[in-house]
Design a protein that fits this description.
The protein is of the alpha+beta class. It contains six helices and six strands. The chain folds into two domains: 155 residues, no CATH class; 27 residues, no CATH class. The chain has a six-stranded mixed β-sheet with strand order 2-1-3-4-5-6, with helices on both faces. Bound molecules: iron/sulfur cluster. The site of iron/sulfur cluster has 11 residues, from helix 5 and helix 6. Iron/sulfur cluster (SF4) binds next to helix 5 and helix 6.
């Protein structure tokens, strides 16, 4: 899959184990900085972060694991903390969705390292050369996290999953395509 390949290329490049590739080229300067930071021990790549229901760090596959994050790149410097997600494919152009993703990554970063005062979260749209970037104070993050937590609880405590048919929801759904969902909608 292309997305997986580009993520692998990014990881190898940042670690100094692979070349700058065509897929990374629009962010050449940014990747060079990440590579430099990796050498200095200030950048971490492809981290797996998991938390329990109280947002305390947990193992990836433990009894108490409640949520998981795949972190593409994480910069930890004395004066700044940045978490970055690499995106491939379409650039939705929906700033509110981008901002929510940034807030979610920033919340995870704060729970991983409660000593931070401000977290910057960035989505790098590798095919478009665009970045969605937002900064959060600890106060912001506590507030946002409460809202995320309540939404996620509804998911993790749900006992029933009624179908929500729409052209958008059904477009990629396996069950609709193989004909086992009577609610399936297409254009
Ligand atoms: S095909 Fe059925 S199960 Fe799949 S998204 Fe649509 S409504 Fe949901």
């Amino acid at each position: 899959m292309r997305g997986t390949n580009i993520h692998n290329e990014a990881e190898l490049y940042i670690k100094g184990e692979g070349p700058m590739t065509k897929g990374l080229m629009m962010f050449e300067e940014g990747f060079e900085e990440l590579q430099e930071g990796f050498k200095n021990g200030e950048v971490f790549v492809e981290e797996d972060w998991a938390f329990d229901i109280e947002w305390k760090p947990a193992g990836w596959n433990e009894e108490n694991t409640w949520c998981r994050y795949k972190i593409d790149a994480y910069i930890k410097k004395p004066d700044k903390t940045v978490v970055i997600d690499f995106k491939t494919g379409r650039y939705a152009g929906n700033e509110s969705t981008h901002e929510q993703q940034c807030a979610l990554y920033a919340s995870a970063t704060y729970n991983r390292d409660p000593s931070v005062e401000v977290v910057q979260a960035e989505l790098w749209y590798l095919d478009h050369g665009k970045i969605s970037r937002h900064s959060y104070t600890v106060e912001d993050l506590k507030e946002r996290q409460e809202a995320f937590h309540n939404r996620a609880l509804k998911l993790t405590e749900a006992k029933e999953y009624p179908a929500k048919a729409s052209v958008n929801n059904c477009r990629w759904c396996h069950f609709g395509k193989i004909g086992v969902c009577s609610e399936y909608r297409s254009i």
